[in-house]
Structure prediction request, 434 residues.
Amino acid sequence: MPRSLTVLAGAVLAAGLVALTPPGALAQVRPTYVHAGRLVDTEAGKVLTNQLIRIEGERVAAVGPWTAAPADGPVLDWSGFTVLPGLMDMHTHLVDQEQTDNIAEPLLTTAAEQAYIGAAHARATLMAGFTSVRDVGTWRAFGDVALRDAIDKGLVPGPRMSVAGAYITTPGGGGEITGIAADVGIPPDMRRGVVEDVADAHAKARALLVGGADFLKLIATGAVLTVGTEPGQLELSEDQIKAAIEEAAKRGTYATAHAHGAEGIKVAVRAGVRSIEHGSLIDDEGIALMKARGAWLVADIYNGDFIDAYGTAHGWPAETLRKNLETTDAQRIGFAKAVKAGVKIAYGTDAGVFPHGQNAKQMPYMVKYGMTPMQAIQSATTVSAALMSKSADVGAISKGRYADMIAVAGDPLADIAILSSVAKVMKGGVVVKE
Prediction:
């Protein structure tokens, strides 16, 4: 029999067996166990030794001391590793091409080709140990929604995704494709979130959420990488930001704001955004306001070094390199102040500006600029889970959460850079990297 027919016959037989299985029998699927030599308890902020993790289906059923190998299911021997929850990156761009010197790059691929590009980026991210991400905007609207759904259906491997659908931005603003000839038309699906006024902000926000976005991404200020905009310049008004937030609240979700400039940060926080992305030029007043309002900071403090070195070597626009230099050191100073002030800081890298799969390169920067290694790990686990209101599902290895976990050789609390060399990855109880 041809292999395709064999597979089909097997599937039909399996479906028949499921239909004939007595009620409740499917719940008796054997558990899987992981023997962890060291286990980072991100909730308690400590490291446990010689632990046994029981997994039933996609979720963790129990965690406790290792005594002996259980007899009712297979045991994965990770006793020579440090085991952590799957890491989380709150600022990625999986769907689009990685950054290049060509400002027209988003116009050079079809939607079909873009889907394959996104799938490749998703796989690289998962293999790097990042089992959950927020994708905070794409040029072609809803490409991130399609990728999220394809991953959830098991069509392609990738992290759990929470997606924005597109950017909400002003005409010619930080979320637009700019710098090209005036008579070159931009496809409508690349301008779905461009808003002219408050009414338009309501309408475009609604449309993105109806189209499948999990949250909204607002471009409150200019951008480092968008030609013709300035990071310190306010672009969306407070009323426009409020309009989008109101639409998000109606659907039980939130908005985050790309905001480099000090005034843009304060406007966005006063309007009620849940998190600030970048925060490069934040001032003391902005830090105090974020602390008081409980807003999260998601600052890509590794990214500036990559842009400077790689962008200079590969001929990125002089304007981009200038704006990067003007924001990089300021961002790190503000980050350190925010850490000291107790602002909630979630891990976010802007992956896509630098290659996907290198997300953990920011970890040493978090420590260099004020965090303990445990705090840096928590920023990419428990704190990020709280930002997305998903603490019941991800962010820790404990009963009831998804069995998303990674293993590394060595001690990341002694050398956090080893998180860039993940040996094993499990997502939902399935080992995807061994």
User: Anything to note?
Assistant: The radius of gyration is 22 Å.
